[in-house]
DNA sequence: GCCAACGTTGGC
DNA sequence: GCCAACGTTGGC
């Protein structure tokens, strides 16, 4: 089967959780070469990882930092196996509600391939996405090489529409566009920042209740991640065992959140938002 | 550090 | 099974 494409977020800046630094930057990644993507504690992201195969392509994304964006290219090097860090009480992402007899959290191994020659800032991606708000538009001159199709592909990225998903699918054409951007660059003199005014502004603010809006959009593509079928227990220590540097350092995967979801059995199909938006 | 967006929990 | 309250993500 042709390799699929994904985007995975890590935090390049230091952040201490339970006394441990969860930072994992592109430099850290290049140094260790292969890392166990532990710490994902969101059911949808976990299910997506379970659907990955060796050889699938991964975009390594810098999140929760000054300049978020795509920093490197990587590849899945080991399919999903139980995330043993969930059972370690001292680990930043320990989850008391899961046990070895019935693993709840999984991780894959990801191997570094190359740095993006031109770091692709989220601000550029968002800027391009905003240019074609309604109809499909031509790209700015600086990145005209991505074409209209490239603009469309970017606009449909989960990164734009599902901002909080830490592990997300990337369409093949979108991958090609991003690869091209990383290779050619050209936007350095472009103003991709939203400019002064606060883009996130929303009219009347109403503390709660906002969840009502319907953004139904791009979650359709996320279908097919239900999985069910339990990846059977695979021993976690094949390439490096717990306690090894890779783990000691911990990366900045997603934090906790989530739970419930499966409880007794494996989750129901594609549960993304449970409820939330409608 | 703020806070909007949105995912999760728990009462009913 | 709905939905308000709460907690987290992550851009800015």
Automatic annotation (TrEMBL):
Record bears the keyword Nucleus: yes
Extent of Basic residues compositional bias: 194-204
Pfam families linked to this entry: EVE
Subcellular compartments: Nucleus
InterPro entries the UniProt entry points to: 5hmC_binding, EVE_domain, PUA-like_sf, THYN1-like_EVE
Residues covered by the EVE domain: 4-179
Region (Disordered): 186-278
Protein name: EVE domain-containing protein
Species for this entry: Somion occarium
């Amino acid at each position: 089967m042709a390799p699929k494409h994904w985007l995975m977020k890590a935090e390049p800046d230091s952040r201490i959780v339970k006394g441990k630094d969860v930072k994992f930057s592109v430099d850290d990644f290049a140094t260790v070469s292969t890392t166990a993507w532990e710490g994902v504690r969101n059911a949808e992201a976990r299910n997506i990882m379970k659907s990955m195969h060796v050889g699938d392509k991964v975009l390594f994304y810098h999140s929760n930092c000054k300049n978020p964006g795509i920093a490197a290219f990587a590849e899945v090097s080991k399919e999903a196996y139980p995330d043993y860090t969930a059972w370690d009480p001292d680990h930043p992402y320990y989850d008391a509600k899961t046990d070895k007899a019935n693993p709840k959290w999984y991780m894959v191994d990801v191997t570094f391939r190359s740095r993006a020659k031109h770091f692709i800032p989220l601000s550029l991606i968002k800027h391009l996405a905003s240019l074609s708000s309604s109809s499909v538009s031509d790209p700015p001159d600086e990145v005209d090489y991505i074409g209209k199709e490239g603009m469309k592909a970017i606009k449909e990225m989960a990164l734009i529409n599902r901002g909080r998903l830490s592990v997300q699918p990337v369409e093949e054409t979108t991958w090609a566009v991003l690869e091209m951007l990383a290779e050619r660059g050209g936007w350095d003199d472009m103003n991709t920042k939203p400019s002064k005014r606060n883009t996130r502004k929303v009219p009347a603010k109403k503390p709660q209740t906002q969840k009502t809006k319907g953004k139904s959009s791009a979650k359709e593509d996320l279908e097919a991640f239900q999985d069910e079928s339990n990846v059977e227990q695979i021993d976690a220590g094949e390439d490096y065992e717990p306690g090894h540097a890779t783990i000691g350092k911990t990366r900045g995967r997603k934090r906790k959140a989530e739970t419930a979801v499966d409880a007794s059995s494996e989750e129901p199909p594609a549960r993304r938002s449970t409820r939330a938006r409608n």
